[in-house]
Amino acid sequence: LLAGNYWLRDSVRGFVGWQYGLVWLNSDGSLDTTRIHRSIGGPFGALHLLKQLPDGKFLCGGGSGMFEDAPVSTIFRVNANGSLDTTFNALSTNWCEFDCFFPQPDGKVIVAGRWQFTDDQTHSLIRLLPSGAVDPSFNNSLNFESTYTTSPYEPRVMHVEPISDGMLAITGTFDRINGEVHRGIAMIDTAGNLLPGYFGGNGCGGFLEGAGTAVPTWYQFILGIKPAQDGGYFIYGAYRGYDDGTTNDASQRLLSKLYGLNVGIEEQATGQPAPLQIAPNPASGAVQLAVGMAPPVQAMLTIHDASGRMVLQEPWPAGGFTHTVQAGTLAPGAYVARLGTAAGPAQYTGRLVVVP
Hints:
Blueprint: E1 2-10, E2 15-23, E3 38-39, E4 47-52, E5 58-62, E6 66-67, E7 70-71, E8 75-78, E9 93-103, E10 109-117, E11 122-128, E12 144-145, E13 157-164, E14 167-172, E15 176-177, E16 180-181, E17 185-189, E18 203-204, E19 207-209, E20 217-219, E21 221-227, E22 233-243, E23 248-258, E24 274-275, E25 277-279, E26 286-290, E27 299-304, E28 310-315, E29 322-326, E30 333-341, E31 348-354
Parallel strand pairs: 24-31
Antiparallel strand pairs: 1-2, 2-3, 4-5, 5-8, 6-7, 9-10, 10-11, 12-15, 13-14, 14-17, 15-16, 18-22, 19-20, 21-22, 22-23, 25-26, 26-29, 27-28, 27-30, 30-31
């Protein structure tokens, strides 16, 4: 399922013209003639963000304000077949730039980007209830700022990544949050409150492109953060230098490896999980997971989807160095596998990618 603005030429079934925002393709890229392609009312206002929810529905961002001849907000929800879900009603916006939808297991969704509701309030991070209303139990009022006078980017959150239970990393084009220095990256709890003690230092550094020209441009942002198989994390974006509070490494560019959320790029922090070996990876069937050292006693293997929801739990064999799971029972996507005792933190972690 593609979101955007597409010109279709399926004259046999009547899907012709430049007004389609949701289009179904077969696995070989051809147009799926068994589906109903959905109109957004014209050639303007493309849908630019689409996220499948745990119940199979899709959250859509952007558009022209119309969907299948019905007025909608720039955040709306469709059913699994692409039809409009009329039980979801979000506030209308004056303008919008949606970068990330982060669904949570309880049906709520964190929305990141930059937009202004019709009450003239500008936001970059909020949480919506399953009905589409703004969740009052979430801190929807974090103030993101950018002090770079030559930057073409308004301050906004571009990515939300679950780090552990109760913690979410946010990245984007900001250098201040509520007046505090957070250059491109920060940690919040699941209620939207800033957490101290993580991503210490000033964060990412910047650089000037086109110095001496009529319109020089300042780049300094972290686009996203993703877990690595060895328990560390990658950050990526447009920056020069990264200050983690322990080391200010001016050589960092484009893509950096963070080993511990406090110490960053230099060395793996004490107590960080060891890598959980996974093969084959990506996988569509049986997968073997292996530990390099003695497994923990009475260990439990859990696998979590991108929203942090646990989708599989199995006991690790006592004294075993390997264990096989059936990845084919999971929906295609990226998962994090954790191995540890039920009462303690993960001692091994790894990233599993499941393909059709």
